[in-house]
């Protein structure tokens, strides 16, 4: 056997061993072999940096993910890659932060943006690794799908330009939600469509029909409608909601004053449900545990517990002038905002854009020093020393 043939055989055997190892629920340390392996089956990959503390916190969760997928008989293989050692490969797959979780399927790489929990990561892997659009052929199948997800989208109709666009949007946004196609007969009896084809969003025990003239592009509409009417909001969700163009009505909870927390939380939820027709298109409702994430968004300190309204387009925020005692008070507060009667704070003027630049820079520097003082001194201290020596 020639040297070249031997090298090929060794590489193939190595790839085979990697797959067999992961088939037992093990995590594969990936190298350039990923180029070949991704064409054979989907891979869930954790791109990490050896010095990254968040990556180390993910390690036990990642082991549970690998075991969970294996026990469920999933075709998804689980691996990890040192993004510092293999920086060009990591860059090729779009891994820009650490840890960066990707589902790699053929020539496509899907980025995971969600909580670092076993359940959520496995759900993401199963959703993205399968068909982009699933078929619903009966009312029973539809009911099962609807019960399984907080939000899902359904295309109804035959071949059309809308279906082509729907498939494009599904391919792009499958990382966030579920997409189906169905016959008209598979829909519940209360779903009446006056024309086909149509795209529907099902959530919160109701549904919305996409209207090209009122809702803009299909992609923008799906991105807005993929969230339940009222939900828990963490830092990732808050960032995603900022891209929807909707204003946010948030109950900012204290975690200590439980009675007051619950009163504000239920009040916001009540308004989101009872006044859905009034506010659905313009507002997203939710609650946060603590004020850290919302403070970062508005660059100001929010009292807890409290209610805040944030305009994600203008980056302005609004606070009630007094205590909100009832859902009616909150309704009046929101309608006053729509009428332009509330005092605005913040914004996106040149002053606030400069403030945001400085705020983000200080946040990044602080985060680096929190992870590693030595790394922070090296990254930011070295340029200062060099500049000082040059000036001297």
From TrEMBL:
Q: What is its main location?
A: endoplasmic reticulum
Q: Which residues constitute the signal peptide according to the record?
A: 1-23
**Xref: Gene3D superfamilies:** Glutaredoxin
Q: Which GO terms describe its cellular component?
A: cell surface; endoplasmic reticulum membrane
Query: What does the UniProt entry say about where the protein is found?
Result: Endoplasmic reticulum membrane
Thioredoxin domain mapped to chain residues: 9-130
* Catalytic function, reaction form: Catalyzes the rearrangement of -S-S- bonds in proteins
Gene Ontology molecular functions: protein disulfide isomerase activity
What residue intervals traverse the membrane? 373-391
Q: Entry's Pfam families?
A: Thioredoxin (PF00085), Thioredoxin_6 (PF13848)
What domain of life?
Eukaryota
Its annotated function is as follows:
Probable disulfide isomerase, which participates in the folding of proteins containing disulfide bonds. May act as a dithiol oxidase. Acts as a regulator of endoplasmic reticulum-mitochondria contact sites via its ability to regulate redox signals.
Question: EC number(s)?
Answer: 5.3.4.1
Official protein name in the record: protein disulfide-isomerase
Q: How does it sit in the membrane?
A: Single-pass membrane protein
Task: Report keywords, A-Z.
Answer: Disulfide bond, Endoplasmic reticulum, Glycoprotein, Isomerase, Membrane, Redox-active center, Signal, Transmembrane, Transmembrane helix
């Amino acid at each position: 056997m020639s040297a070249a043939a031997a090298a090929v055989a060794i590489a193939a055997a190595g790839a085979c061993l990697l797959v067999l190892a992961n088939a037992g629920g093990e995590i594969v340390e990936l190298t350039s072999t990923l180029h070949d392996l991704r064409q054979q089956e989907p891979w869930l990959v954790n791109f990490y940096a050896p010095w990254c503390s968040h990556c180390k916190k993910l390690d036990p969760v990642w082991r549970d993910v690998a075991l969970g997928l294996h026990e469920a008989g999933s075709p998804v293989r689980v691996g990890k890659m040192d993004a510092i050692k293999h920086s060009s490969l990591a860059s090729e797959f779009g891994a820009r932060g650490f840890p960066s979780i990707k589902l790699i399927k053929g020539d496509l790489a899907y980025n995971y943006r969600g909580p670092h929990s076993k359940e959520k990561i496995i759900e993401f892997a199963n959703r993205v690794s399968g068909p982009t659009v699933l078929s619903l052929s009966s009312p029973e199948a539809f009911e099962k799908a609807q019960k399984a997800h907080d939000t899902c989208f359904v295309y109804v109709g035959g071949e059309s330009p809308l279906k082509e666009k729907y498939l494009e949007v599904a391919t792009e946004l499958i990382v966030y939600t579920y997409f189906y196609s169905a016959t008209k007969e598979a829909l519940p009896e209360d779903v009446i469509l006056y024309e086909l084809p149509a795209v529907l969003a099902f959530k919160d025990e109701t549904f919305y029909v996409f209207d090209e003239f009122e809702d803009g592009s299909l992609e923008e509409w799906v991105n807005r409608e993929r969230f339940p009417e009222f939900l828990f909001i963490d830092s990732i969700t808050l960032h995603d909601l900022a891209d929807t163009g909707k204003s946010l009505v948030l109950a900012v909870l204290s975690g200590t004053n439980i009675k007051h927390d619950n009163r504000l939380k239920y009040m916001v939820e009540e308004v989101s449900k009872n006044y859905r027709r009034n506010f659905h298109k313009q507002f997203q409702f939710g609650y946060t545990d603590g004020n850290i994430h919302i403070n970062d968004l508005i660059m100001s300190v929010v009292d807890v517990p409290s209610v805040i309204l944030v305009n994600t387009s203008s980056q302005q925020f609004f606070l009630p002038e007094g205590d909100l005692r009832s859902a009616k008070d909150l309704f009046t507060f929101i309608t006053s905002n729509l009428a332009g009667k509330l005092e605005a704070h913040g914004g996106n003027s040149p002053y606030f854009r400069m403030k945001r630049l400085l705020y983000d820079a200080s946040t990044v520097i602080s985060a680096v020093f929190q992870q590693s003082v030595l790394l922070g001194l090296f990254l930011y201290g070295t340029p200062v020393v060099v500049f000082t020596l040059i000036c001297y």
